[in-house]
Amino acid sequence: MTDSTARVSPGVPGTRPTRQRRAVSEVLSSFEDFRSAQEIHTLLGQRGESVGLATVYRTLQLLADAGEVDVLRSEEGEAIYRRCSATHHHHLVCRSCGATVEVEGPAVERWTAGIAAEHGFSDISHTLEIFGTCPACS
Amino acid sequence: MTDSTARVSPGVPGTRPTRQRRAVSEVLSSFEDFRSAQEIHTLLGQRGESVGLATVYRTLQLLADAGEVDVLRSEEGEAIYRRCSATHHHHLVCRSCGATVEVEGPAVERWTAGIAAEHGFSDISHTLEIFGTCPACS
DNA sequence: AGATCGATGAGAACGCTTGTCAACTCGCCG
DNA sequence: CGGCGAGTTGACAAGCGTTCTCATCGATCT
């Protein structure tokens, strides 16, 4: 269903696969955890693949809309992005070093669905993030 | 342990109970859900209790540090505050009309604590919001 | 190759938040 | 009871992340 790479543009209609978009997508793929737009922008510069900051933002939004990346807000309010894997999951994030652990919780999924149904809500989605201090940082 | 009102300043050493702080604290108490600093600032103005924006921010930080309010980030990255009620709960929000239902989930609390512990994380907090379309809107 | 239209980049603009600093208040001591 | 000092305030500027603007560029189609 999802063949991870090379489907950056095909999703949205009037969208083109440009050098910049590929570059952003690649950098994104090279990380497991969340990165801010600015961080990605800097990294691209260091890699020689200079891409305008505005373009980085635009591309990330595009990818987010297409459901290819997860967007989160750090506790400082910065938007952070990460390529999302096919499976729906949540994150356990270290406040101090940013280390991220993916966690799954069928129980939680069922619980949210149940609660929503109980109140007559439909078309449900939810966000769940767990923050803490990882063993290495405490 | 927590006697809700009137302990805005006694917590922190060199801290005084001023008109402004009381005003912010009161406005905060008059809501059950999260409000942004700017919103609180505007509300104070309407109430006739004008308080400088910077002071609102400072007071909210103070209260947050003292553990009297919860701070969260809206999806737009705005910091939102809520008086830390005794009961921890989550929200079921209608995407269309904004209606909010407070929900509690002991199971979820236990689950997050468990997951975190399992990975050696400490000092845990979490955010969980459920979005959907309410009966009236669908 | 030429035309068309989305994409890009540089910089300005914007909104939220924090810092600065002089004026002010509150609580306290003499 | 008056004055002192430390905490507090408010207006404004600065900082930062993000979005917008617009002229230019480049990809796709004919």
From TrEMBL, chains A, B:
A single MF term (Gene Ontology): DNA-binding transcription factor activity
Chief place of localization: cytoplasm
Residues engaged in binding Zn(2+): 94, 97, 134, 137
Keyword set includes Nucleus: no
Keywords: Cytoplasm, DNA-binding, Iron, Metal-binding, Repressor, Transcription, Transcription regulation, Zinc
Any Gene Ontology biological process: negative regulation of DNA-templated transcription
Disordered: annotated span: 1-22
Subcellular location: Cytoplasm
Cofactor(s) listed in the protein's UniProt record: Zn(2+); Mn(2+); Fe(2+)
Entry annotated with the keyword Cytoplasm: yes
Similarity comment: family membership: Belongs to the Fur family.
Record's subunit section: Homodimer.
The protein, known as: Transcriptional repressor
The species this protein was found in: Nocardioides zeae
